[in-house]
Design brief:
The protein is mostly beta strands and 106 residues long. The chain contains no helices and 11 strands. A hairpin with a 5-residue loop joins strand 1 and strand 2.
Length: 106
């Protein structure tokens, strides 16, 4: 597992597999953790505040996450690719947990 350190003690753990994606740190002491098979496509993750954690499991994430101070965003394993973009706005001192996503196409 790779570790990328940005300014202000912000850290990215994992192998970055990104396509047309952007990760932005505006605060300090934030962590982005990407599991072994995490994949970002057309994604934007913005750490607006400080002391936040975003964890993405074995998923293909498309969309936008804005995370503020003292927050946790946990996206577990998903089957297939997101049918549409997800937009998550996680306000200060809160959390968002998405354990499992499965999409059926008929």
């Amino acid at each position: 597992m790779q570790k990328f350190e940005a300014e202000n003690s912000n850290v990215i753990y994992g192998d970055l597999q990104c396509k047309d994606s952007k990760i932005e740190f505006m605060g300090k002491n934030n962590i982005l953790f990407l599991s072994e098979k995490a994949n970002l496509r057309n994604a934007q993750i913005t750490f607006v505040g400080s002391n936040a954690l975003v964890f993405i499991g074995k998923s293909c994430f498309r969309g936008r996450i804005m995370i503020f101070t003292n927050c946790v965003c946990y996206i577990g394993n998903a089957l297939g690719q997101s049918a549409s973009d997800m937009f998550l706005n996680i306000t200060s001192e809160s959390y968002c947990i998405i354990l499992f996503i499965m999409f059926y196409i008929f």
